[in-house]
UniProtKB/TrEMBL annotation:
<protein>
    <submittedName>
        <fullName>CoA-transferase</fullName>
    </submittedName>
</protein>
<dbReference type="InterPro" id="IPR044855">
    <property type="entry name" value="CoA-Trfase_III_dom3_sf"/>
</dbReference>
<dbReference type="Pfam" id="PF02515">
    <property type="entry name" value="CoA_transf_3"/>
</dbReference>
<dbReference type="GO" id="GO:0016740">
    <property type="term" value="F:transferase activity"/>
</dbReference>
<dbReference type="InterPro" id="IPR003673">
    <property type="entry name" value="CoA-Trfase_fam_III"/>
</dbReference>
<dbReference type="InterPro" id="IPR050509">
    <property type="entry name" value="CoA-transferase_III"/>
</dbReference>
<dbReference type="InterPro" id="IPR023606">
    <property type="entry name" value="CoA-Trfase_III_dom_1_sf"/>
</dbReference>
<keyword id="KW-0808">Transferase</keyword>
Length: 376
């Protein structure tokens, strides 16, 4: 597999760090998860299946879990040995904590100059907000993303995807892989200061026209990406299900409106998103309300229009296409896993469903390093 032979120390908790190191484990990396004595918190968060929380299963499969007390000499000595062994360290402490523990990048680099060290934090290691704690919701709020999620009455709505966490995870993974690639040529490691806010802001290029070009906030309901375009909008069906039109290209507007007998509205779809397209929106609102989602699915099947039914999560993960793409996988114990989204033709990733108990691999890992159980 692509990352076979890469050795990773994961000191992070919750979602961004554990997710990225699981991706590395899926592709062959040897990931050592260093947990506190109480264990990774998400072991006990949310519903469990086959005795394991779904969250933990889908962020920690294939890792070896150890417990070290980094505040005592024995634990610190074991950590030094692990750093000598490792290629990558991932931590998500609040800025300053790693330095107080003596496990910051400078300390680790002195032990292993080839080390790639990734520090994930809310606001990064520099700047006025450096010491502010934040999880996903606060990150989305501070980045302006929550202001884009509006309920029908115009109030901000709770986001339902952990996009700050996942943006941080994937951007950190990119940084680590780039640093490992560069190390192959230079022999030098590197330090990655990964701010979840920075990562989330980097996901917004398609919606920054009003702030960047005009110096104003978007008018959410009038913008292309949030319903201002008639062909990029949600519509209610007669059975209270919903349908999404998801392609605003002119050809899609022409194909749909001709099929619905209203070619006279096509020219309005050439206007900029906003009030100019309101007659088309009004027509589509009334039209889609006449039939059920099933009826619209049959009607649209052979029309070249970008659309999709608004599915529940259960429907989406039971979809034959999802199953054909192997994005749902069940282990022998009945535990359900998210599949591997990166599908290589050569050396594809492989799910290792094993989940260590808290500290299960401590003795074995320390033995590999030539250490004794006194370092527990």
């Amino acid at each position: 597999m692509k990352l076979e032979g890469v050795r990773v120390l994961d000191l992070s908790l919750f979602l961004p760090g554990p997710h990225l190191t699981m991706v590395m484990a899926d592709h062959g990396a040897d990931v050592i998860k260093i947990e506190p004595p109480t264990g990774e918190p998400v072991r006990e968060v949310g519903l469990k299946q086959a005795g394991v929380s779904t969250w933990f299963r889908n962020t920690h499969r294939g890792k070896r879990c150890i417990v070290l007390d980094l505040k005592n000499a024995e634990g610190k000595a074991a950590f030094v040995k692990l750093v000598e062994w490792a290629d990558v360290v991932v931590e998500a402490f609040r800025p300053g904590v790693a330095k107080r523990l003596g496990i910051d990048y400078d300390s680790c680099k002195a032990i292993n100059p080839k080390l790639v060290y990734c520090a994930i934090s809310a606001f990064g290691q520099t700047g006025p907000k450096v010491n502010r704690p934040a999880h996903d919701l606060a990150m989305q709020a501070d980045t302006g993303v929550v202001s884009l999620n509006r309920a029908p009455d115009g109030t901000p709505a709770m986001p339902h995807m952990p996009v700050a966490d996942m943006a941080g995870s994937l951007m950190a993974l990119n940084g680590i892989l780039m640093a490992l690639f560069r190390r192959e040529r230079t022999g030098e490691g590197d330090y990655i200061d990964l701010s979840m806010q920075d990562a989330l802001m980097a996901w917004l290029p398609n919606v920054l026209g009003p702030p960047f070009a005009l110096g104003r906030d978007p008018v959410v309901n009038e913008e292309r990406s949030w319903g201002g375009n008639a062909l990029y909008k949600l519509y209610r069906c007669s059975d209270e299900r919903w349908i999404a039109l998801g392609g605003a290209e002119h050809k899609f507007a022409e194909n749909l409106l001709i099929a619905l007998g209203r070619p006279d509205l096509i020219h309005l779809c050439h206007l900029p998103p906003g009030p100019g397209q309101d007659p088309v929106k009004a027509f589509l609102i009334e039209t889609f309300s006449r039939r059920t989602l099933v009826e619209w699915t049959l009607f649209l099947h052979d029309i070249d229009v970008c659309w999709a039914p608004v599915k529940t999560l259960t429907e989406a993960f039971n979809d034959p296409h999802t199953r054909a793409r192997e994005m749902v996988w069940t282990d022998e114990q009945g535990g359900t896993h998210l599949g591997i989204p990166i599908k290589f033709a050569n050396e594809p990733g492989r799910i290792n469903p094993h989940l260590d108990d808290v500290g299960e691999s401590t003795v074995a890992v320390l033995k590999e390093l030539g250490l004794t159980p006194k370092h527990l």
